[in-house]
Design brief:
The protein is 31% helix and 20% strand. It is of the alpha/beta class and 268 residues long. The chain is globular, with a radius of gyration of 19 Å. About 3% of the residues have low confidence.
Length: 268
Amino acid sequence: MSLVLGVDVSTWQGRMDFQKAYNAGARFALIRAGSANAVTGAIYTDFQFVRNRDAIKDSPLRDRYGFYWFIRVNHNPLAQADYLADLIIQEPYTEPYVVDFETADGIINNPELVADRIILFVDRMEHHGIPLGPGDIYTRTSIWNTVVARRDYWRRMRLHIARYVARIDDNYMPVGLTGPWSDGKFIIRDWSDWNRWQFSADGNLMGKIFGAESNSIDLNLEMAVDTPEPPSSDDPLEPRVVALEAANIEQGAHLLAIEARLAAVKEA
């Protein structure tokens, strides 16, 4: 396993320069697509979504980006999923979308209803044919273990977990923890491992370094599976072809999913 550095961005970062993010070491980016108003339920597009969506396509991160949605479970999850699907269905993103669950708002005392509404959102996205699904869950242990009911369903989704460290080193890596619960604390209930870990956010003064207008930016690590290097050119042809296929299988799956989605859109 190896760890890959990335960023997630929203209107709070202002105008992003994804080239700077790449230069600082980011190798993937997640862009907030939108949310719903906590009180009224009015659904909206993140104010920087269009610019971020367009800017990243002209940057070195164009091959490793996706979108996330800040879900409001106290409002209609189907309407929110419909809105997100409409925003991203024709985009050539390569990362599974992320359900950003940070608050239960007015239904905090009803874990079963909270779980039901997250699942309705995810199922609706699958109904729309959104590829690379069923998506990831972003959350914090302190809220997830408290306000979301247990479900076997969660095992279908990868975990993007937030737990922050006090310091990061000169290579922008966390100091003091090797994983979000490597010290045995804040262990999340429904997953045994994690895919991405948000380890630094507000107040980290890393924004400008990673291309944001804001002083701070969310930094994440991805646990990536190491792929073997292709054999040298003097090896027999067949093993070399097999190794190349293994090294590119994940990206190939992403591209096939994108092609299928675009074909479906054109037929519609």
